């Protein structure tokens, strides 16, 4: 007899679930893109190092920004390159994220999925700060809440209590390792469900979102999906945070009773992964040709439909300096290829030809 109220986990039973064609379509498309990426990596390993650098910076910046932890672009770059020491609380948190991300990049295959290792990653994330709860599961009940425009806050979800948390973390790690080790479950599904359960347990007083994103990258690497190394998944999540929170919220209903429908969260995460692979292909095709700056920018604009910003083009042309991108866009506007609208930060471009 299961103690009522204690959430149980059984990942083996998930394999009997019937997935809709959208999820199966995502999975097939991701495998296809992963195969293509492997060929690209063999062809041009050196040129992709630059993409790795940029993705590290974007991941560190975006994952912290989702939590409201920010510093300037220049400082982010210096912190990620370890060319400076963190100056304030936000920068200490950013440096900690960078450290965990580096460990994942360098040693992903040597990191077992267990409660102890997750706690260790949390501890490293706070290693630049004096946080007594670093590397410890929560000691107070936490809540997932939303603040409305009028200032009211509403509790959307109550995660597990502190005393249930260590055991639940052990259980999801065991279940995940079992279904992956026995090839019982498609890894992309297992990863999505593990991350969703992790977020519902919400094991830490602070840092849950960031650790969940680091774990997503880690689990994808361990299962042969390396796209996050070249294209920042965190930047994609950050670009439309509401979609992320909405998918999470929809999938949390009934979680304590084990009656949740995790499909919205699975679709959300697979969509992010697939879109990162597509970005990789776009960037790679531009990188590969070694074109002059203007042609590179022109090619990047041809990937865009509708409005796009200077930042969109910079992401597609990671090798070009900001001034080269600006110069090329200016020339294309003067030549009547592009139209420029808006001012300052809200400037955008449209293709005319």
Approximately what portion of the residues adopt beta-strand conformation?
under 5%
Number of helices: 15
Counted up, domains total 2
Q: Name the structural class.
A: mainly alpha
Low-confidence stretches: none
**What is the distance, rounded to the nearest whole angstrom, between the alpha carbons of the first and last residues?**
69 Å
Spatial strand arrangement across the major sheet: 1-2
Mean pLDDT: 91
Overview of the molecule:
This protein is mainly alpha-helical and 353 residues long. It folds into two domains: 246 residues, Fic-like fold; 60 residues, Winged helix-like DNA-binding domain superfamily/Winged helix DNA-binding domain (Arc Repressor Mutant, subunit A, Orthogonal Bundle). The chain is built from 15 helices and four strands. The strands form two sheets. It has a two-stranded antiparallel sheet with strand order 1-2. It has a two-stranded antiparallel sheet with strand order 3-4. Strand 3 and strand 4 form a beta hairpin. Helix 2 crosses helix 3 and helix 11 runs antiparallel to helix 12. The protein is globular. The model has no long low-confidence stretch (mean pLDDT 91).
């Amino acid at each position: 007899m299961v103690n009522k109220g204690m959430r149980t986990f059984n990942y083996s039973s998930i394999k009997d679930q019937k997935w809709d064609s959208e999820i199966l379509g995502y999975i097939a498309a991701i495998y296809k893109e992963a195969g293509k990426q492997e060929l690209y990596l063999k062809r041009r390993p050196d040129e992709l190092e630059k993409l790795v650098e940029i993705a590290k910076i974007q991941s560190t910046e975006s994952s912290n920004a989702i939590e409201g932890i920010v510093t300037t672009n220049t400082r982010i770059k210096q912190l990620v390159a370890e060319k400076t020491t963190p100056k304030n609380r936000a920068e200490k948190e950013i440096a900690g994220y960078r450290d965990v991300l580096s460990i994942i990049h360098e040693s992903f295959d040597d990191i077992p999925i267990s409660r102890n290792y997750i706690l260790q990653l949390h501890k490293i994330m706070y290693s630049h700060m004096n946080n007594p709860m670093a590397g410890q599961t929560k000691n107070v009940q936490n809540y997932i809440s939303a603040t409305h425009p009028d200032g009211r806050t509403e509790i959307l979800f109550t995660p597990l209590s502190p005393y249930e948390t260590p055991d639940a973390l052990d259980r999801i790690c065991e279940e995940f390792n079992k279904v992956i080790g026995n090839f019982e479950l498609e890894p992309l599904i297992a990863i999505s469900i593990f991350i969703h359960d992790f977020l519902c347990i919400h094991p830490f007083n602070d840092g849950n979102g960031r650790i969940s994103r680091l774990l997503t990258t880690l689990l994808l690497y361990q299962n042969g999906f390396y796209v996050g190394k070249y294209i920042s998944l965190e930047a994609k999540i950050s670009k439309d945070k509401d979609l992320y929170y909405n998918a999470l919220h929809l999938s949390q209903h009934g979680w304590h009773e084990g009656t949740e429908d995790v499909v919205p969260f699975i679709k959300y995460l697979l969509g992010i992964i697939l879109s990162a692979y597509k970005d990789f292909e776009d960037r790679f095709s531009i990188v590969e040709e070694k074109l002059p700056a203007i042609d590179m920018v022109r090619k990047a604009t041809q990937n865009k439909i509708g409005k796009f910003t200077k930042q969109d083009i910079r992401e597609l042309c990671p090798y070009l300096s900001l001034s080269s991108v600006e110069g090329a866009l200016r020339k294309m506007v003067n030549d009547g290829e592009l139209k420029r609208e808006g001012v300052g930060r809200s400037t955008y471009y449209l293709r005319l030809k």
